[in-house]
Amino acid sequence: MSQCTGEEEVEQEVEEQEVEQVVEQEVEEQVVEEEVEQEVEEQVVEEEVEDEVIDFVSLERELWCAVQEEQKVQRENSAKLRAVSQRLATYQEFRDIVLSCHLKPLDQKERRGTGRHTWNPLVSPSNHSPSVP
After folding, report:
1. So what's the pLDDT on residue 48?
2. Which are the contacts of 86, defined by CB distance < 8 A and separation ≥ 6?
3. What whole-number distance in Å separates Cα of residue 105 and Cα of residue 133?
4. What pTM was computed for the model?
5. CB of 100 closer than 8 Å to CB of 92
6. What's the CA dihedral at 60, 66, 71, 77 to 10 degrees?
7. Would you list the DSSP string of 38-88?
8. Contact (Cβ atoms closer than 8 angstroms) between residue 98 and residue 79
């Protein structure tokens, strides 16, 4: 077994502290979000009791938003766990993985493409020189 030098131990401790701080901040953010959601739910319940009429459209919209938020939280948590298990060199790499967790890989049809793409539809493919007015 190799022993770490004092500097390596300090670096490892600093990295572990940074990751712990990030995780703690995100847990605090989730707690705040849950509290806000509970307050919104309580307000909706109070409004429904006062009106005694259930607005199914708004209820469905609220449910959809809650489901989307829960999926986002699950996606970010799994990305965080993957990033921590990879033992990344910097916090920036960790952050990039978490921020890009919503991206999905291209399927085979998308990778093949359909030919040349016209990125600027105002410029015709045959005329590559810019026109001067």
Report:
1. 61
2. 97
3. 43
4. 0.42
5. no
6. 180
7. HHHHHHHHHHHHHH----HHHHHHHHHHHHHHHHHHHHHHHHHHHHHHTT-
8. yes
